[in-house]
Structures are given as structure tokens and as C-alpha cells.
């Protein structure tokens, strides 16, 4: 199963849903889509708006097609899923391209820059091997704690 | 007391990640915005939270009149923010953006509270507008989550990633 998600962004991302819906008859695998706040109703694929958790869908999917929302991307990276990401170009200053650029250059995801190319990307996915994401150690909390101690605001 | 400013979506999600790390050591309280119904679900049951009116959700001003209108409009938010920070006995404010967080940050600055700003993971090469303002005008500690961004902004700190 191929799972398509647009996350919880305020407008969804109908262009991706519409493209996947149009392609569905030519794709052997079953497709399920989470359409969020989008208004387009797919005709050829199973779809729903929101679910309390998408983890079950992620686990069942052979690959996940997603926009560049960080919440979804990193949840999937931690699950070591195969990710095909399409930047949402409808949001302010297109900032999703920054994260997609670095993650794809490090071979954690496949980035489909142009929706018109998505069929080619989908076909190529099975032959692509992606790297496992290992997060760097995080000590932001320790730096804040140290700062507070130095300012005498915190007695630990 | 640490007060977290929660703006809907990825901003609140990353703020709650740092809150989860710090909560075992120091108690936290929260500022949320009217209309952000889903964000309120993030807050642990017994923790203090204050709801304030929001402004600067989208910063798109065409002319001076619109800017003046924007500033007048943010006054209720500013007064409520000041009141909230006093009521919550805030020593330190932690924010992760975006626009609506600016006025509570200004309130924290007026009250001489310490300010920590954490730029979101999605920013690899450039700061968000809110992050840029925080870097130059508000933050005592400014975190970025990519090494490449730290090199561009020398006063910022790279200490790993929340996600």
C-alpha cells in the first residue's frame, strides 16, 4: 500500500491529492490518502481527512508520499519508512524546500521537486536504497539549564 | 517558572518537546492563543495556562496605514501578555515562533524576563522572519537546529535537534 499524507496544514495540499488520484488507475499498488483540510474529494483512491494517529497507516505502507511538513517527515524518518516528499509550494516563502533539500542530499528521503515528475519518482522508488536517520544527540535542555543556573534563577 | 509560548502546528510540537525535557527539572506554564483549539490538547492537565488574543498570524502589510492598524490591533495582546507573564511568575520565556509569539516576546522584554528562542528544524539555511527578529532584538539564548545555520548567525547555538 502507498500512503499519501498532507498533514494538518491549514489548507491541506490538494495538488498532490489530485495528482495521486489521477495516477491511481495506472498504479498496481493500493493507495490510501489523508487529505487534511483540502477540499478536493478523490474518486479513485481510498481517503479520509484526519485520524488521531497515522502510525498504523505508516506501518502498513510500503512507502509514504508526503509534503515537507517537519512533523510528518521526522516521524517517518524515526520509523525508517521509505519517503517520497513533494514540497508544498502554496505556503509562505516555500520554506519546505530547505528541509527537503538537505534531507534528500543526505539520502534520507527522495525529493520530487516537480509534481509533474511524480510518476517517474514513484516508479524509481523500489530500486532506491535510503539511509537510516540517526538523530544527533540533543542537549538544548542542558544548555538552558546551565544558563538558568548561571543567572541564579534555578537552584539545581 | 518557565513559560512556553505555543503557536499551532509544528511550533507547538517542538516547544512541547523541549518542555518534556525540562519539565522534570523545573515547572512549566503555557501561553496559548484564542482560536488554537488543537494546541491546548498538548498541555499537561495540571499545568497553568493563559489564553491571549492573537495578532500577526500572517504578516502582510501593504502600506503605512495597514502597519498602524496592525500595531493598534496588537495592543490587547500586549496587555494580556504582560498580565499573563506576571500572573504565571515567569522567569524565562521559551518560544519557537511564529508571528503570534512576537507580542508575548515583546512583553517579556518589557518586563526584563529572560528569553530563549528555538528556531524550528525546518530552517536549514535561513531564519524565519520571527526568528530573525528574535535573534536581533529579543533572545538571550538563540538555538538553531542545523550546524549550517549556526555558521551564518554566530551568536546562535547549535546543540542538536529536538526531532
Q: Can you walk me through this structure?
A:
The complex is a heterodimer of chains A (about 160) and B (about 160). Chain A has helices spanning about 15-25, 55-60, 70-80, 95-105, 120-125, 140-150, and strands spanning about 1-5, 30-35, 45-50, 65, 85, 110. Chain A has about 160 residues and is an alpha/beta fold. Chain A has one domain (about 1-150): Glycogen Phosphorylase B (Rossmann fold). In chain A, strands 3-2-1-4-5-6 form a 6-stranded parallel β-sheet. In chain A, α1 (about 15-25) links the parallel β1 and β2. The longest helix of chain A has 11 residues, at about 140-150. The mean pLDDT of chain A is about 90. Chain B is of the alpha/beta class and about 160 residues long. Chain B has one domain (about 1-160): Glycogen Phosphorylase B (Rossmann fold, 3-Layer(aba) Sandwich), CATH 3.40.50.2000. Chain B contains 7 helices and 7 strands, in the order βαβαβααβαβαβαβ. Chain B has helices at about 10-20, 35-40, 65-75, 75-85, 100-110, 130-140, 145-150, and strands spanning about 1-5, 30-35, 50, 90-95, 115-120, 140-145, 155-160. The mean pLDDT of chain B is about 90. The chains are: A alpha/beta (about 160), B alpha/beta (about 160). At the A-B interface, α3, α4 and α6 of A face α1 and β5 of B.
Amino acid at each position: 500500500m502507498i500512503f499519501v499524507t498532507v498533514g494538518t496544514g491549514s489548507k491541506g495540499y490538494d495538488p498532490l491529492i489530485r495528482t495521486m488520484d489521477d495516477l491511481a488507475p495506472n498504479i498496481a499498488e493500493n493507495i490510501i490518502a489523508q487529505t487534511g483540510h483540502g477540499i478536493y474529494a478523490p474518486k479513485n483512491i481510498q481517503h479520509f481527512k484526519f485520524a488521531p494517529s497515522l502510525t498504523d497507516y505508516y506501518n502498513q505502507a510500503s512507502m509514504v508520499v508526503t509534503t515537507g511538513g517537519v512533523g510528518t517527515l521526522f516521524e517517518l524518518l524515526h520509523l525508517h519508512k521509505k519517503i517520497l516528499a513533494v514540497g508544498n509550494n502554496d505556503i509562505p516563502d516555500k520554506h519546505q524546500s530547505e528541509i527537503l533539500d538537505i534531507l534528500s542530499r543526505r539520502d534520507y528521503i527522495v525529493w520530487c521537486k516537480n509534481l509533474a515528475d511524480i510518476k517517474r519518482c514513484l516508479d524509481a522508488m523500489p530500486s532506491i536504497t535510503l539511509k537510516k536517520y540517526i538523530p544527533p544527540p540533543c542537549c538544548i535542555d542542558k544548555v538552558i539549564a546551565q544558563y538558568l543556573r548561571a543567572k541564579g534563577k534555578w537552584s539545581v | 517558572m518557565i513559560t512556553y509560548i505555543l503557536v499551532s502546528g509544528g511550533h507547538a510540537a517542538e516547544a512541547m518537546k523541549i518542555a518534556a525535557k525540562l519539565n522534570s527539572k523545573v515547572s512549566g506554564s503555557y501561553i496559548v492563543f484564542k482560536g488554537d483549539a488543537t494546541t491546548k490538547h498538548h498541555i499537561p492537565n495540571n499545568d497553568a495556562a493563559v489564553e491571549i488574543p492573537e495578532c500577526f498570524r500572517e504578516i502582510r502589510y501593504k502600506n503605512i496605514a495597514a502597519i498602524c492598524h496592525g500595531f493598534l490591533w496588537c495592543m490587547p495582546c500586549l496587555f494580556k501578555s504582560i498580565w499573563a507573564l506576571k500572573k504565571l511568575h515567569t522567569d524565562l520565556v521559551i518560544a519557537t515562533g511564529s508571528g503570534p509569539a512576537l507580542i508575548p516576546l515583546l512583553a517579556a522584554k518589557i518586563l526584563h524576563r529572560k528569553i530563549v528562542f528555538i528556531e524550528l528544524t525546518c530552517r536549514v539555511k535561513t531564519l524565519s522572519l520571527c526568528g530573525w527578529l528574535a535573534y536581533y532584538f529579543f533572545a538571550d539564548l538563540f538555538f538553531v537546529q542545523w550546524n549550517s545555520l549556526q555558521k551564518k548567525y554566530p551568536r546562535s547555538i547549535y546543540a542538536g535537534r529536538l526531532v
